[in-house]
User: Which sequence fits this backbone?
């Protein structure tokens, strides 16, 4: 299976586990997963009978992986997540940089940002569906509006905390504005941008599932909601587990490699 | 009337921050190829002076003229200055060569000459082998050499050095001081060097502008009476240092303990 992933989706390849993972983290990981499976199994057997057993769920996962319908939903949701993630991250980062550099922009955006951060995410989803109907636009707008303020907030703090000495260096050597942004400011923001991207991605895929469950006819969220409506809890668990694992792999694989590349000068 | 080879002219310069005055009034000129040290007690306004003559902060009063152009008036060309900061202020995500190229890209130096120019400057500073290294892999002294290389690279009207050796260990600082005099003589650079160390100022400079306590004025424009090359441990340097300490004792308000510390 790892070889298949590596061949078909090279961007999902995880960094090779180092000695630390093999030595210290692996036993902890095994114990944590084992404990979780045990609790799940006991819960399914004795306490809460509507919970599907791990073994049954594994069979359902395998069946889902063979299903063309599942992969259709998966691709749809993935496209929605990546689209909203990209737009929210870019928009949020741009506003964060603007606010960080300009007092006027900060005076204008700060109250809006505070308000946007205070609104619960489902409210965005409901209002977007009311405004745009149940098409693709509603989900896209809801996700972008819900995620972008968090990104702006993280990036703005990083702009404020930048090394002002490098600003002075750029002024002394007459670096043009574009060179200052590209060579001095943006590289300083990389750690914050990566944190914002991780946060944005995590929020995007979780909200995308909620948006699909509430207002879309297709996608992983809609599929989970449909299975829940018909009380097919094995399907709910199987679909959710595959999707969560895929998103985790994507986040660690893609953003992890990006982080390694962008921060290679620290090594 | 300025001398024809005047690079920097500061006239009636004053710097205030609201009601607080950092620099009361400064007048001085620096000629091409001169190495001028600025010496003053802590809080006398040295940083404000550097900001004013580097173009980072407009003075409250007076003029700064670089190569005949007013620094704070609209003009056809920006004077090109070099600056060696106390901390190196290199971009850590760019290699040594890339750090230098960024500065060249912002100047009018033709692209086809960059490589030769970088190699030449790095060679002068004995750091050619670190051309493709990340700054974080270099020692403090090597980073400061790169910072000096960056300042020399753009053929500046003058180079400002803000206590560039103060964060280095004494052995490295000694070696860099010695090289700095050689580099300045070879390149003919005009240098304004801010320092706390009287001995360092005496060793490096042709002239020392001694400032009063803040709000500062010039207490004395002191010409160092020792020919080059100089030896840092030369008894004459110690004598001049002692002479300067005697002179500044009253205006800097130094008691015996402070005097020893300052020296």
Assistant:
């Amino acid at each position: 299976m790892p070889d298949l992933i590596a061949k078909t989706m090279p961007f999902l390849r995880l960094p090779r586990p180092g000695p630390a993972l093999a030595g210290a983290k692996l036993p902890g990981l095994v114990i944590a997963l084992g404990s979780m499976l045990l609790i799940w199994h006991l819960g399914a057997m004795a306490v809460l009978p509507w919970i599907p057993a791990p073994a049954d769920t594994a069979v359902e996962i395998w069946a889902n992986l063979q299903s063309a319908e599942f992969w259709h939903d998966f691709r749809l949701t993935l496209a929605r997540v990546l689209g909203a993630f990209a737009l929210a991250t870019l928009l949020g980062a741009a506003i964060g940089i603007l606010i960080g550099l300009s007092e006027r922009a900060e005076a204008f955006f700060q109250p809006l940002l505070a308000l946007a951060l205070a609104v619960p995410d489902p409210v965005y989803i409901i209002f977007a569906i009311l405004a745009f109907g149940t098409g693709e636009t509603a989900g896209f707008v809801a996700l972008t509006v819900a995620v972008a303020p968090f990104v702006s907030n993280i990036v703005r703090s990083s702009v404020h905390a930048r090394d002002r000495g490098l600003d002075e260096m750029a002024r002394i050597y007459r670096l043009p504005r574009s060179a200052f942004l590209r060579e001095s400011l943006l590289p300083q923001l990389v750690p914050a941008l990566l944190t914002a991207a991780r946060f944005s991605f995590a929020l995007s895929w979780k909200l995308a599932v909620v948006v699909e469950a509430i207002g879309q006819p297709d996608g992983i969220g809609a599929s989970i909601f449909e299975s829940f409506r018909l009380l097919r809890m094995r399907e709910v668990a199987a679909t959710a587990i595959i999707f969560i694992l895929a998103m985790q792999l994507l986040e660690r694989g893609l953003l992890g490699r990006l982080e390694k590349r962008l921060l290679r000068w620290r090594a | 009337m300025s001398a024809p080879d005047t690079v920097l002219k500061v006239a009636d310069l004053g710097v205030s921050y609201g009601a607080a005055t950092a620099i009361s009034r400064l007048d001085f000129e620096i000629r091409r190829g001169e190495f001028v040290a600025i010496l003053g007690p802590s809080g006398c306004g040295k940083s404000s002076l550097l900001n004013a003559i580097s173009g980072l902060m407009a003075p409250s009063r007076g003029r700064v003229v670089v190569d005949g152009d007013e620094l704070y008036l609209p003009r056809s060309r920006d004077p090109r200055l070099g600056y060696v900061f106390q901390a190196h202020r290199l971009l850590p995500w760019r290699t040594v060569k890339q750090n230098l190229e960024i500065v060249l890209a912002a100047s009018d130096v033709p692209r086809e000459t960059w490589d030769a120019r970088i190699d030449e400057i790095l060679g002068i500073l004995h750091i050619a082998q670190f051309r493709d290294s990340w700054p974080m892999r270099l020692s403090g002294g090597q980073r400061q050499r790169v910072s000096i290389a960056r300042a020399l690279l753009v053929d500046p009207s003058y180079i400002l050095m803000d206590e560039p050796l103060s964060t280095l260990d004494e052995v490295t600082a000694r070696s860099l001081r010695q090289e700095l005099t050689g580099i300045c003589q070879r390149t003919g650079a005009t240098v304004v060097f801010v320092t706390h160390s009287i001995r360092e100022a005496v060793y490096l400079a042709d002239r020392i502008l001694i400032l009063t306590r803040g709000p500062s004025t010039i207490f004395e424009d002191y010409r160092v009476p020792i020919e080059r090359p100089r030896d840092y441990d030369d008894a004459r340097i110690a004598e001049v240092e002692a002479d300067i300490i005697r002179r500044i004792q009253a205006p800097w308000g130094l008691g015996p303990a402070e005097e020893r510390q300052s020296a």
